[in-house]
Amino acid sequence: MADIEEIQKSEVKLYTFSGGTVGVNNLELFSQDNTYQGQTKEFSDPFYIITHPKGNLMWDAGLPQMLVGQDPYTDPSGAFTVSRQDSVLNQLQAIGMTPDDIEFLALSHTHFDHSGHANTMKNATWLVQESEYNFITSEETQKNNSDLYNAIKDLTKITKLNGDHDVFGDGTVIIKSMPGHTPGHQVLYLELADHGPVLLTGDLYHLYENREYKRVPSFNYNVEQTLSSMDTFEAFAKEKNAKVYLQHQKEDFNKMPKAPEYLK
Fold first, then answer.
1. What is the pLDDT of residue 81?
2. Which of 4, 74, 98, 126 could bridge across to 81 with cysteines, CB 3.0–4.6 Å?
3. Backbone torsions φ then ψ of 76, nearest 5 degrees
4. Is the dihedral of CA 80, 81, 86, 89 positive or negative?
5. Could you tell me the residue ranges of all domains in the chain?
C-alpha cells in the first residue's frame, strides 16, 4: 500500500500567474557598486498557487490591482515603470478557484510588488515572519510608507513565524527564512508531482548575475544577512538537488507552466 506521505507528494502542484511587469529604469540599484550603471531591464512579477491535499497556498501577490486597466505607471523617482494586466479574481478562475479556496497566504516579503492583491485574500491565514510583521506594521512604516502597510492591513488571520515553517507538515511545502532583503524575507521550497524539488527565491536574487556573483541590491535591509542567507540557500538547494527559479527573471518565469497550459 502506498505511503500516505508519498501520495501527498504526488499531488502537490504549482500554478504560475503573472502579477504584472516591472520595468527597471535604473538597474544600478540592484548592486552595491556601479556594475549595472546605465542599464535597464524588464522584470517578471509572478505569484503562485500551490495545491496540496490538505489545502492551498498562495505565494506572493503581485503588483497593486489598481494598475489593472491603467497605463503603465512610473514612480516619482523614475526608477520603476510598472503595469498589471489582470486581477487575481480573473486569474484564479482559470483554475476554478476563488479567494475562499486559498487557506494560506505567504509573501516572500512586503514590498509593493509582492503584496499587490494581499488584502483580497483576507480570509486566508497569513504566514509571515514575526520580524517582517513587526517591520510592516510599525508606526514608522505606517507613517512613512503607508502604501506598504495598507496593502496588508486587512489581513487579520495571522500566524507569525520565527524561522522555517513546514506548511502542511509533510515536507512538501516549506517556507525557509532568508532575511536580508527585508527583515523577514523568506523563500519557498516545494516537492512537486511533475517538477521534483523546486525553490522559489522571492527577492533573494533578482538576476542570474546576482546569484552567480553574490551581488546585493543597494536598497536591501541588511547586506550581511543577505549574504548569509545566500550561503544558506545555496547549501540547501544543493542538498535537495532543487531547481531554482528566480521570480523576477523573465526567462525563469517563461519556463514555468501557466494556468491554462497546466490544465491541457
1. 98
2. 74
3. -55, -30
4. positive
5. 4-262
Structural Rg of the chain based on CA atoms: 18
Partner residues linked to 244 by β-bridges: 199
Write the single-letter amino acid at 239.
E
* Phi then psi dihedrals of residue 59, to 5 deg: -110, 120
Superfamily of domain 4-262: Ribonuclease Z/Hydroxyacylglutathione hydrolase-like (3.60.15.10)
Question: Is 108:179 a contact under the CB 8 Å cutoff?
Answer: no
Summary count for the chain: helices (H), strands (E): 9, 13
Using the predicted structure, report yes or no on whether residue 87 has a pLDDT greater than 60. Answer: yes
pLDDT at 259: 62
Pull the grid cell for residue 95. 483554475
| Confidence category of residue 111, pLDDT binned at 50, 70, 90 | very high
Sheet holding 196-200, edge to edge: 165-166, 173-177, 186-192, 196-200, 243-245
Residue 142 CB contacts under 8 Å (≥ 6 apart), including other chains? 149
Distances (CA, A) of 178 to 78, 141, 186, 196, 213: 29, 21, 5, 22, 18
Residues 6+ apart with CB under 8 A from 93: none
Nearest 5°: phi and psi at 192? -95, 150
- Per-residue pLDDT tens digits for 156-212: 999 999 999 999 999 999 999 999 999 999 999 999 988 899 999 999 999 999 999
Unique residue bearing C-alpha cell 508531482: 193
Q: What mean pLDDT is predicted for residues 109-127?
A: 98
Q: Which is it for strands 13-24 and 41-52: parallel, antiparallel or unpaired?
A: antiparallel
What is the full DSSP assignment across 165-202?
A: EESSSSSSEEEEE--SSSTT-EEEEEEETTTEEEEE-T
Cα gap 108→58, rounded to integer Å? 11
Q: For the purposes of burial, counting CB atoms within 10 Å of the CB of 108, is it exposed (0-12), middle (13-18) or buried (19 or more)?
A: buried
Question: Does residue 48 sit in helix, strand or coil?
Answer: strand
